[in-house]
């Protein structure tokens, strides 16, 4: 089996950073009213700026495919060109199309020559699943390199226009013309962007990162759905697909809106994160003392102190100077967040040979967790 190294990291963030006060200029106001939940959500999540692939008129400036392809292009130069890519493995929770898959569309955009492609669907763990596919391909010798990506373009899903029909329907029914908090909540949480890793079977470049292992855990057998889109949650916790609704209900109920059960999120996301972390570290005989930097993907700074405290209670104290996050300035880019965190850490000048980095990615959709352990070479 080959060793696998992250030799290059690229990113692409669209347009200029957007402040909290500018968000509704881009996303619009539902029913021409300011959101009552916006300030509460933003106060808790601690995000100060984020990026949207939109103009102030709500017009798209980039597709998810273009964001991803641009991040990959930022890996390439005369020493490693697009026609040398043997595998493109892409993860996202916001593909531009139901079909074809995201990865084949990225391949088509790049026009880099023959490549194997893989698309990882899901939510935040989709980027890690794409990474694991590339890691296993290089490790097994199936390919000598792989380009892995995590990306999101959620802003176009959050535009006010997508919710106005539901509000109009509520007015006709003489009900309160306000969309539910589980839909409004996520309008102030999610951001756009893409990151890309070049994986190779030999270390190259100034500061290659050896992937020691990648682990994943799902709790779908225990817990019901927490975050979903293209469906509605039923009283028994099951999901009813958009394809089983009359098409007029797609607009009347904002079926395609991204929704989150915040009560389930608060109840389980940290505890299952600690449980799965214990499993991953014990499997590989690793302790927090073996970690120099922990990169936790969190959707909100609201969870940071709670996660730290629960880890300490479980006997897993990653001291606070080891924590590296960029949520405040980049926002929550879902499947792309861990790529963007690692890119920023690598370019910070803080890393030294022999140090170890622990990547932690939770996914609230049905409570899935992914972890990776890296060595700086």
UniProtKB/TrEMBL annotation:
All residue ranges annotated as the Beta-ketoacyl-[acyl-carrier-protein] synthase III C-terminal domain in the record: 281-360
Record keywords, A-Z: Acyltransferase, Transferase
Pfam family, one: ACP_syn_III_C
PANTHER family to which the protein is assigned, alphabetical: 3-OXOACYL-[ACYL-CARRIER-PROTEIN] SYNTHASE 3, BETA-KETOACYL-[ACYL-CARRIER-PROTEIN] SYNTHASE III
Name of this protein: Beta-ketoacyl-[acyl-carrier-protein] synthase III C-terminal domain-containing protein
Protein species of origin: Sphingobacterium pedocola
